[in-house]
Amino acid sequence: MSSVPDFKRKAAQYHLKRYGVGLLFMLPWIIGFCVFVAIPIGWSMFMSLHKVAVVPGGFKYTWLGLQNYRDAFLKDNVFPIELITYFQEMILMVPIIVIFALLISLLLNQQFPGRFVYRALFFLPVIFATGQVLSELFTQGAGDIPFLDQYNLEPVVRQYVGGELAKTVMEVLGRVVLILWYSGVQILIFIAGFQTISPSIYEAVRIDGASPWESFWKITLPASVPFISLNVLYTIIDLFTFPLNPVLKHIKDNMFKVDTGYGYASALAWIYFGFIFVLLALVTGLFSRSMRLKGGRP
Amino acid sequence: MNTEPWVQRARNYATSFLWSRKAQKYKMVMLGRNLSDGLLAKMVIYVLLSIVAYLYLQPLLYMISTMLKTVSDLLDPSVKWIPRVVTWENLTKAYKGLQYPEALRNTALIALSCSIVQVLICSMTGYALARLAVPFKGLITALVLLTFLIPPQVIIIPLYVIFSKLGLLNTLFVFLVPAIFGQGLKGALFILIFRQFFRAQPPSLEEAAKLDGASAARLYFRIMLPLAQSACLVVFLFSFIWYWNMYYEPSMFLAKGFTPLSIRLDQLEDVLNPSLLGSKDLVSNPVTEGTKMGAAFLIILPPLVIFMFLQRWFITGIERTGIVE
């Protein structure tokens, strides 16, 4: 008959055996998460509730409560406007990128000689569409579509869109090519996604007399809803770190200002993250609902 | 119908031709059985793709053409794409301004070491999440997703303090150490890719190896990792490219001394014109424009060459990895 401590030891041994290997494999990540993610997150939240001043040998914290968050909307006359403008741009950019990626990947998915060359071409921007090279191209004004100036589209946009929004539309159009450069990964995801639709479905539909046009709307598009949602999410996340994002620049500027400092900058970053998070949650909710309604794949 | 006999003959000939086997064959070639089979559809696809590809690659062409222009060509509005005189001066200037060999070595060192480590660690983590028994697996997966979503700006200041306490700033280890602990650049994405990949593998392989008495480590390194070759290649290349191009993190952690190419490109304006120091606006300066484009070209050249050699495996690898399941 085993006593209680013995039983406990056996249970511990069992758990160790069961979880030991898995924990060993996860160990680097768990340590890394604690040191490089969890502590910084907590610290940054702590900072955002304080006024942080740099003194020799460390920081000096003064408790402010939610003052920083309040200031971001009430006192700061740049941040809310930039946030709104950026979200307007994002709402324009995400559909542009995803629809462009969908169309191009539909074309690239066809069988034709030289397909590999074109696939490589459209993936090329992923190699350098991040970071400094991209913003260098932005500042030099490369990347607008040539017919924008040639046909003088600005008044047309102004007439149909009107008001403040026209400015945003023009800004997005002015660098549309570089924005499209963000669609390399999305194109790949779509192409890989199309491979999962079985060709026999197309064959069956064709025998039933459906035109290619119909088979696109009735089969390809519904089957790629999960990939569209994946791409929308990926695009939103990717655009967080868009190199010319005004919000991020504002946060960085505030970090090194004496009167605002790290505390305020952290608060701004958290507000920004909050907005993005809400947006992501909305998109996820929307897509999962539409998928459930159609009875598509989970 | 009182038509001329030759019209009648021509009509007869036309109808007989239209129904002949030859004509059917032509029609087959032009239009195809499917929409995408025919020659006509192929032409349309080629033309569409070529136009879009031209628009798409225009900034790259702009970069190369600007790089080869002299200053007078740059200021001359009548010179658009093809420079009057091809000059290599911009490239040599950029080469010197970037201190290319040293910066290239730094960048390559960071990108290579970190991406190799990332492949190893992320695949291990992904494998554990996919196949091994780990307590609170759901919670951990959610946390992995969270690390993917948190913008770096939120945690950059505490990270800076932590790195400076550990004495890692301005060294290679400021990127290598987080990579070793699974928190490298976009590490969460790679973990999820590997998790997806390992989940799609049949479990019978592992069972067979376990029956033969293989230990977990042996099972992983001898069977699972070699199996994941295509996923490893994809992750390695993505990680390499992202480390190569990253700008925000090194601008905080590697500001002086051990600087990669992207930081030097940012500082190039100051190196070229020390007199303009501090007045750095977003207005582009036509005198240094060509040199900057040359520098940008020098930066993207090595990954471009690598991609040219590996693109075939890369793209099929992505299709096969099942990232999208």
From TrEMBL, chain A:
It comes from the Bacteria. The chain crosses the membrane at residues 21-43, 90-109, 116-134, 179-198, 219-242, 262-287. It comes from Paenibacillus cineris. Keywords: Cell membrane, Membrane, Transmembrane, Transmembrane helix, Transport. InterPro entries: MetI-like, MetI-like_sf, UgpAE/MalFG_permease. The keyword Transmembrane applies. Residues 83-283 form the ABC transmembrane type-1 domain. PROSITE patterns: ABC_TM1. This is ABC transporter permease. It is a multi-pass membrane protein. The lineage of its organism: Bacteria, Bacillati, Bacillota, Bacilli, Bacillales. It is found in: Cell membrane.
UniProtKB/TrEMBL annotation, chain B:
It holds the Pfam family BPD_transp_1. It is a multi-pass membrane protein. Residues 104-310 form the ABC transmembrane type-1 domain. PROSITE patterns: ABC_TM1 (PS50928). It is found in: Cell membrane. GO terms for cellular component: plasma membrane. The chain crosses the membrane at residues 39-57, 108-130, 142-163, 175-198, 219-244, 293-310. Keywords: Cell membrane, Membrane, Transmembrane, Transmembrane helix, Transport. InterPro entries: MetI-like (IPR000515), MetI-like_sf (IPR035906). One of its GO terms (biological process) is transmembrane transport. Belongs to the binding-protein-dependent transport system permease family. This is ABC transmembrane type-1 domain-containing protein.
